[in-house]
Amino acid sequence: MKEPAAVVIKEVGPRDGLQNEQVTIATEDKIAWINQLSKSGVTHIEITSFVNPRWIPALADAVEVALGIDRVPGVTYSALVPNARGLERALTANIDEVAVFLSASETHNRKNINKTIEETLPILREVATEALAAGKKIRGYVSTVFGCPYEGHVATESVIRITDALLEMGVGEVSLGDTTGIANPRQVQDVLAILLERFSHDQLAMHFHDTYGSGLANVYASLQMGMTTFDASTGGLGGCPYAPGAAGNISTDDLLYMLHGMGIHTGIDHGRLLEAAAFIQAKIGRQLPSRNLQAYLSGNNS
């Protein structure tokens, strides 16, 4: 299949990127970073999480961040919401889109949410019902789609069952997560070939991590299958607290370099995105994985 002419990149750095960082980023710096991202042409930013701060202390200032940013027309500001209590906070913070989440493997779901998959679905259904009633869009994340750090192989039938349940409760788009970055391009295409027999391209998004360096190759494999929506994190920030050894998400900056070089439109200004990446790297105080960012900072940005 010919690659699509345009794709949508959903920026997840402020949530997925920061949730596993040991350095505490000041609230005003998070706000400044998100404001930079908003001006780069990104149309969707996951800005924080309303998970109990005891579990994700790095994002304890979720309400302050959401209320402090400058909202740019045309940009959707999303946040992770685990339950009804989290939704109350998210609605107070005027989030545009609610993101719910669970895993395709039982063990990872228990580690991440402390519940079985069957126990999790009714909680998410309650969140979805209330969010829709409040006029909010809903996105769903399914983790460990391509393998689990505890169980190994994950049956695609489990992914189908969970995706069906999420769409039935009103989720508009399901993001398929390679939580530990173990997927390879052939596997990605094999799984998508099955899923796309049941779901449309616009119901699915791809969420790759780059633990073993195959993240961009997996994006290319997805493009060949007609996929047009990808999650990425500025600078390559990220990692899952409940997936030992998982590296960051694919870097938004590196993804832009590849897509723009292929003539695929994203609507994002690569230069402004790199400025935002440089800003957050300075605040974190260590070199981030993005190769484009390091080339940019060294002056080799030709």
TrEMBL record:
BP GO terms, sorted: ketone body biosynthetic process; L-leucine catabolic process
Record InterPro entries: Aldolase_TIM, HMGL, PYR_CT
Entry's Gene Ontology molecular function annotations: hydroxymethylglutaryl-CoA lyase activity; metal ion binding
Keywords, ordered alphabetically: Lyase, Metal-binding
Pfam family, one: HMGL-like
Record keyword Lyase present: yes
Top-rank lineage group of the source organism: Bacteria
Keyword Lipoprotein in record: no
Sequence ranges assigned to domain Pyruvate carboxyltransferase in this UniProt record: 7-274
UniProt family annotation: Belongs to the HMG-CoA lyase family.
Protein name as catalogued: Hydroxymethylglutaryl-CoA lyase
UniProt source species: Brevibacillus fluminis
